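Deliverable D5.2: sample structural annotation.
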Amino acid sequence: MGDMDGKVALVSAASKGLGRASAMAMARRGAKLALCSRKPDEIAAAAREIAEETGVETWHCAADVGKAEDIQRFVDGAVGHFGGADVLVSNAGGPPPGNFPDFNEADWQSAFELSVMSAVRLVRAVLPHMKTRGGGRILFILSSSVREPIDFLLLSNVMRPAVAGLSKSLSRELAGDNILVNVVAPGTILTDRVRQNRRHFAEKNNISYEEAVDRAAQNIPLGRLGDPGEFGAMVAFLASPEASYITGGFFSVDGGRLKGL
């Protein structure tokens, strides 16, 4: 079927959006998929639909990656079902928006657990299985805020760069084990969450949804929002044998929006 035949890929927060798009793109390359998200019905539907469309074997469970025990249950279940793990796509929903006065101690701790510790725990759980297989791929789905802080997204601006630091450190530490580690950072991709935000923006400003989307595209050189499939294609490429000499990288999928070098 493809160059990922026989590979087992674990994807968290995979019921929709960037996680699902990443899973679908790897399935089209032939990878078997272990998927999780918080809502049992949504992840079951995603696993079933991906399997039906691509013909690959899928396994799923409900898991909140903000909780250590859920992460361990997800990885143990996936490895128990498939017998190993070759690819980890670490993905989690973003922490809530806001500015500094909006957050208390509990908010900071919750954002840390969701955004930082989820990545740490997923890697800790998967790593022994990758080493047993003789190598693997670890991909962190982060945000353009790693390179360019986004107004009103303070928690993301603080937490996401920590995971980028983890990725770079792991890329050097694990190179001898043939485990390649990279970051993939979306710009404005037209996921369900972005559609919802654009509808809210349209209602607030008394404009049409189409105009709200057009305004979001004004600062993007390509002049449009990205499609989730375009993001998933980058994840699948980095997970594939084609990307055998790429590690420690930061890959923006943003239509050219980031201005930094």
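Annotation notes: The longest helix spans residues 105-133. The longest strand covers residues 179-186.
The annotation will be released with the project's public dataset once the embargo ends.
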